[in-house]
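Q: I'm teaching a short session on how sequence maps to structure, and I want students to see two examples side by side rather than one. Could you give me a first protein with its sequence written out and its structure tokens following it? Keep the formatting plain so it prints cleanly on a handout.
A: Of course. Example one:
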Amino acid sequence: MYKKFLVSIVLVIFVLAILLGLYKILNPKNKEILAQGNYIEATFLAEAIRPETAEMIKVGDTLYDSQGKKCFKVTDVKVVPSEAKYVYYDQNLLYVENTSKLKDVYITAKSLDKKYAWAYPYGKDLIMAGAHLALYGENWKLWVTVLTVKDVK
């Protein structure tokens, strides 16, 4: 009976130690650990957005995650006409214009913090090429696709 109790206690302590170790690895507070990673530079694509919104995005803007934490600084913005068709209704008729008024915006940004794992954390998401996520500026928000991610010093 005593051996069962002792084995149970040892297993519980072992599992708790593993969980604590994983927590410390995945959530470092030590500045030395945080300084080991590199910054990242990511390119985001926002497709078929309104021209007014595209004009709001400027070089030097700060990008925020969904919790309001500052994550990126915009280093380049490229606005191009969208290839999307402009579809609208007028007097119960559907019209499709090939000349779109909408814009595609390519946003290149550098992270403010260094990554400390294999991917850069962004709210509850990770910045990985191909991912879709919400990108927030001072007075705009966009649903974007992450095109490229590269390490920079």
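Q: Perfect. Now a second example for contrast.
A: Example two:
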Amino acid sequence: MGLETENPKLFLEQAKAELENYHGIQERLQESLGKEKEAKQAFEKDRAAVTEKIEKTIKDRQKELEQSYDQKISQSSGKIKKAQSERDAAKNKGIKERIADESAPLKQENIELKRQMQGICKREGAPLFIASKFFAVLYKPVSFVEVLILIFLFLLIFAALPLGLYFFLLKSKGILFLAGIYLLDILLFGGLYVFVGNRTVGKYREVVKQSIAIRKRILRNKKSLKALAREIRKDSDDGHYNLTEYDDELACLTQERNDFIAQKQNALHNFETVSQEIIRDEIENAEREGLEALKAEWQRNTEERISLEAAERETTLKLSKEFEQYIGKKHMNVEDLQAMIQILEEGKAQSLTETILKLEEGDKTL
């Protein structure tokens, strides 16, 4: 026979004590769970802060390293741009001088040809007007451009001028005034054109013929001058312009910039493979003590929680095995156990079963 039969009062007191112990374990377990959660959050927060600090430091150091080399590369590029501009200016000057030198004979020939035309006019007693470009355009155009100018002048004088006068000044007078304007325009300008032509082309035919021949030669020379200038500008050989000093400077500056680019690449590679790990180790070592303390606190709370969970399971099993099967699950609470102890103390019952019945009868009465 067990204690529940021999001494039901002591049995109930032990059950009450074990139940109160179980409640105490549950309270401590909840408190331990809270502490464990707080310790875990504190550790993870600090660990995340350390990781962020490492990444930020690495990023900042890498940015500073890149900016340092980028500044050198930018300065070197600026020097190259300046040297290239100076070389281009020297080349353009050299091209102009070369064009001037190589075109000088043709230019001088054109000057002599113009003097020759004027000399012919003076020798033959012809007006110097015959040697002018304006005369050639009006009476003996020798180029496509001069033909276009002549057509434009005829349209201006014999079309635009009379129409303009009519529409802006005499439109209200009728169409006959337009016919009159055209007739007057033809008589005035046409007559002047024919008169001048007769006094020059008609009278000094040989002089005009020679002037035309000379003008054709001048135009051929001008075309040759343009072709010469175009050929010189297209010439890819810069040996004519004494640019060796500029080319040497550009080569030196370009090599300097390439060296800076290579140094930057090497520095970044070294940073990524060596310096980055050094920075990481330095920060982790500086923060290790604090992190380890937080982790230890978390582990202590975890161990306490595990211990309390084990105690809770053991106590639950003990209550079920040693007390609940005799007392009943519904009476496994401090209030009912205390009430049953009081029933036994008052002598209202002698056994555990009788005590439980008295308790239940009392509940029904209430």
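Q: What should students look for in example two?
A: Point them to this: The mean pLDDT is 84. Also worth mentioning: Residues 15 and 323 are 6 Å apart (CA to CA).
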